[in-house]
Design a protein that fits this description.
This protein has 319 residues and is mainly alpha-helical. The protein has 16 helices and four strands. The chain is 59% helix and 5% strand. The chain is globular.
Length: 319
């Protein structure tokens, strides 16, 4: 496992000067971290991002002190001294940082699942990080400048996403997704469970501090009722033949997933989570969550009809 900082170093060298240097910009855009960032931005922003647009934004950011570019590069400009200190610290403590992140991940992931992956740091965009093909992790260090602890935590989150799931289980999940009558609901519940467990790895069973990206906060956990209302509508409408995929964009899968998973973890521990972590099965996890809520006389958040759909294999086609 390697941690690549070439993009951070090249960016720091680019913006430390008072004038824009084309050679240094080309060096920055040739790094693996930048190329991963560009690919991700193109994917989520419908090809609106390219090297030319980044070039223009960085030039404006360097020219005008109060300019706030759309990629968030200005946040690094305003914390350049801290970035330099962080680069030195990470270079010296790479192994220790990775070991801490791996240890956090293996508290939830079974020890027989490998984590063979390379990590690339980059600058820019709204996401804290992402994983490509379970082989490469990209971390937006702009979100973690001056906060090594949160940096370690986001690495552990992405390491969970990169765990080595057997081909057999991935294939079965693919076939089930392909043939289920409720594709949207099936994918949504899958994302909720995946991100919920990743957030458990990252933050532990109790949220001490808000996620730097804003995806999971103490406030968002207080507004769970709204999230469940959106989720209920997604499931019920699809069950009735109405598909509205845009509603998923309104749903905070991190908050609702973290709530469901920590509720189960607090009562049952980690073993039941292996249903998803190893086998990509989510039916028993949802069933256990509803059971715990009923036993403790607390509201699950799911409508009664939705609970029946999720638990009934014939209705939902979930394992």
């Amino acid at each position: 496992m390697k941690l690549n900082m070439d993009s951070l170093i090249a960016f720091e060298e680019l913006i430390r000067e008072n004038t824009f240097d084309n050679k240094k910009f080309k060096k920055f855009t040739s790094t693996k971290g930048f190329r991963g960032f560009l690919e991700h931005e193109c994917l989520i922003n419908n090809m609106e991002t390219n090297a030319k647009s980044v070039n223009e934004e960085i030039k404006n950011m360097m020219k005008f002190q109060n300019y706030k570019d759309r990629y968030g590069f200005y946040k690094v400009r305003d914390n350049l001294f801290q970035l330099r200190d962080d680069i030195k610290y990470i270079e010296t403590n790479k192994r220790n940082i990775l070991d801490k992140a791996i240890d956090k991940t293996y508290k939830i992931v079974p020890s027989d699942m490998s984590l063979n992956i390379n990590i690339y740091l980059y600058i820019g965009g709204n996401d804290g990080g992402f994983t490509l093909g379970r082989k490469k992790i990209y971390i937006n260090y702009a979100k973690y400048i001056g906060n090594i602890n949160e940096f370690i935590k986001i690495i552990s989150h992405e390491l969970y996403h990169s765990r080595n799931i057997s081909f057999k289980n991935r294939f079965i999940f693919f076939i089930e997704t392909l043939f289920t009558a409720n594709v949207l609901a099936h994918k949504t519940i899958s994302k909720i469970i995946e991100e919920g467990i990743a957030c458990l790895v990252q933050h532990g069973p109790y949220l001490i501090s808000d996620d730097p990206t804003g995806t999971l906060t103490k406030r968002s956990l207080l507004l769970l009722k709204n999230e469940f209302e959106i989720l209920n509508q997604i499931i019920l409408k699809e069950y009735k033949g109405i598909k509205e995929p845009k509603n998923i964009e309104k749903l905070n899968i991190y908050t609702i997933g973290y709530h469901i998973i920590t509720t189960i973890y607090d009562k049952e521990g980690v073993l039941i989570l292996d249903d998803w972590t190893k086998n990509l099965k989510h039916r028993r996890i949802i069933q256990k969550y509803i059971e715990i809520c009923n036993n403790d006389d607390i509201v699950s958040g799911f409508d009664c009809e939705v609970e029946k759909i999720l638990i009934n294999k014939e209705d939902f086609y979930a394992r």
